[in-house]
Write a structure and sequence with these properties.
- It contains eight helices and eleven strands.
- Helix 1 crosses helix 3.
- Helix content is 37%, strand content 19%.
- The strands form two sheets. A nine-stranded mixed sheet has the order 4-3-5-2-1-6-10-11-9, with helices on both faces. The protein has a two-stranded antiparallel sheet with strand order 7-8.
- The two termini are 27 Å apart.
- Helix 1 links the parallel strand 1 and strand 2.
- The longest helix has 25 residues.
- It is α/β, with parallel strands linked by helices.
- The protein has one domain: Carbamate kinase, CATH 3.40.1160.
């Protein structure tokens, strides 16, 4: 199966909301199991998979900042939230039968390995899923940027931005029925149009390293395996 893959080593970027229940907050064990099932399917295809997940289901730093909270404090709280999500996801994936490791940018050795690039790559080579928690370890950077940074570091061939819509549109498709979906975009066009693919720092990092970004509907069971085989699914952001 691995021979049919276009992308062998993949960075999967999930928003924290992917783990939340109907209320949009907290960690829903059923959602974790749903994500784990898709991870198992990717693993069975022969994909070497790394994951970065946000913390929007647990903490939104903007809310604190708007009330006068120090930006660095708010960001560090968000980083801790990503570790909670990473541990929940690790548990679900391992219960589904795939060995998983969590590495954190902020050391907390009692619960996870510290981020070590070569160790992460070795885990991937051995068929383990690696979840990177704690963002970049620095305030003022998003988990989008963390995903782009780790993807470049480990030699990922694509960043898959998992969403609940089937690509990137010129406007919000939920509020505008006439919104137009893009099949492909260049990095520059994405930045100039201020399209909400990833933040500008993450897109610039991918552009500098010629790392494509694929935006697709993570919850459509057929789209993900087809995209990994190179079919045109969702929106591909690249230099072409």
């Amino acid at each position: 199966m691995a021979k049919t893959l276009k992308y062998k080593r993949v960075m999967l970027k999930l928003g924290g909301e992917a783990l939340s229940g109907p209320q949009g907050i907290g960690i829903d064990p059923q959602r974790a199991e749903d994500i784990a099932q898709r991870v198992v399917e990717m693993h069975a295809m022969g994909v070497e998979l790394a994951i970065v997940i946000g913390a929007g289901n647990l903490w939104r730093g903007r809310s604190g900042i708007e009330r006068g909270m120090d930006r660095s404090t708010a960001d560090y709280m968000g980083m801790l939230g990503t570790v909670m999500n990473a541990l929940a996801l690790m548990d679900a994936i391992e219960r589904a039968g795939v060995v998983t490791r969590v590495q954190t940018a902020i050391e907390m050795r009692a619960v996870a390995e510290p981020y070590i690039r070569r160790r992460a790559m070795r885990h991937l080579e051995k068929g383990r899923v690696v979840i990177f928690g704690g963002g970049t370890g620095n305030p003022f950077f998003s988990t989008d940027t963390a995903a782009a940074l780790r993807a470049v570091e480990i030699g990922a061939e694509v960043v898959i931005k998992a969403t609940k819509v089937d690509g990137v549109y010129d406007s919000d498709p939920e509020s505008n029925p006439d919104a137009v979906r893009f099949d492909t975009l260049s990095y520059i066009e994405t930045l100039n149009r201020r399209l909400k693919v990833m933040d500008s720092t993450a897109i610039s990092l991918c552009m500098e390293n010629k790392l494509p970004i694929m935006v697709l509907d993570f919850w459509n069971k057929s789209d993900l395996p087809r995209a990994l085989k190179g079919e045109q699914i969702g929106t591909l952001v690249s230099g072409d």
